[in-house]
Amino acid sequence: MTADLQPARRAGRIVRLAEKGRPLVRFRLDGADCQALSGDTVLTAVLVSAPAVRQSEFGPEKRAGFCLMGACQDCWLWYEDGGRLRACSTLIADGVQLRTAPPEGWQ
Amino acid sequence: MTPPNVEKVVIVGAGPAGIRAAELLVKAGIKPVVIDEGLKGGGQIYRRPSQGFTRPPKQLYGSEARKAVALHTVFDRMVAAGEIEYHSQSSVLATAGNLLQALTPNGRKDFTYERLILATGAMDRLAPIPGWQAPGVYSLGATQIALKAQGVALGEKIVLAGSGPLLTLVATQLLKAGADISAILDTSSLRDQMAGLPGMLARPSLVLRGLLMRAKLGRLYYAGVKLDRIESDEQGPVAMHWRDARGRAQVTECDMVGLGWHLRAETQLAGLAGCTFDYDQSWSQWLPRTDRIGRAGERLYLAGDGLRILGADGAEVAGRLAAAACLADMGLPAPDAASDLRRLDRLERFARGMARAFPWPREIVRAVPNETVVCRCEGVTAGQLRESVSYGGAEANRVKSLARVGMGRCQGRYCQIAGAELIADKAGIEVCDAGRLREQAPVRPLPIGAWVRDA
After folding, report:
1. What is the CA angle B342-B63-B322, rounded to 5?
2. What pTM was computed for the model?
3. Cβ of B376 under 8 Å from any chain A Cβ?
């Protein structure tokens, strides 16, 4: 890709610095096919292709996790069936289907 | 097998403190239950990547690799030999009487105990910088976990800001791994740092290591800064606005910000278990009260950063001491604590020096504009908090009820200290007179479906 075709900002925010040789894992995020590496947390996996994991319910901004150690509870998102998970403390699994918003009709 | 007449001991946390406590109990012929949230033992400081990662310990833990490997080895050996009953990825959410209620990967599980050792560690201590609710702003601890456990940076152009040992360490580790750091902004002044030096000289080699790291950061590092705001677009941060030590306004472009001011003890379970708390002036936070070896009450012991912020080495010592106290109280032979107590004294002198060198940014917090979000969970602003103090009273639990600061999902972990500061400022009282948030079970939110499923 030439420089002028590159978007102003990348879609995701993760920069992989090491451990890039792990096997690929495929999952779906909001219906779109995504790829991550085996051993990625759901948070890492999602933020490779998206800037955030959910919309804040209390402000205009999106959220992308904060503490990565299960303390802040910023990174909860949804399985396709509506179940919830904390992205920083869950490993990504092949074929998992995730949503950044609750299923239609829940709100 | 623990003989039937031996009391049941439960340890919460498998970091340096929990592991050393377990080791001592095992040596005394006891089989403790160890409940930990991590995938593997080691805690946050010596956190291990999951399967399939290949960086060697030296690359993950640097100068502390030997200690990390020693702890992992001791722990894995106890697990493999069946010397401890280990529950990983399990979160103790409530305690009352002699009962602990935990969420395990298979659902809810109750544990009873006769003696309880809490080694629950610490998390980043955060100050509300205007704009910190944006996606792409993380804690310094998170920044390090991302690198250590996942091999990633959380942005392409990074600003690290705050104060404390982690600031220098994370910056060094990120640079070494090839990340692009635009600035390292320390709110502690060189004068603060000099004031802490006499205490820190209790561990001269560590001071030297810190200074060498600092020297290598070179012109990326600024001391004595004020942080004005994080400017963001919809995707996240685009710039940090700050003032240098001479008061000149600066703007540094970035797409990720890591924030943190040293650590805050994780004390929710200690509170639910009935500990008394004292406000500690040097660490600017409420800490549980114990005797010198970690005895907090009848059959209750604390160890590690959840008791005193001494870091990993101090946690190992405190873990051994708490287990020794536990053994002595059970009428079993316990190792002599004298040398560990001397070690603890030295580590505490160092840690208090460090707390003085890299202080909580009291003035920055008190000066935040009214529109600044204080509670990240629910977007409660400094203005809403200040207003609630005016009509509701200058007490943390009142402010929580009225303005919801501390009511959100993190349960006050990231707003309590700043909230107390703002309450004290508004009412013209001391921070320690602004009260302490009462703990509420469950100490972490959980899916209700998981809770009704018995493991």
Report:
1. 35
2. 0.96
3. yes
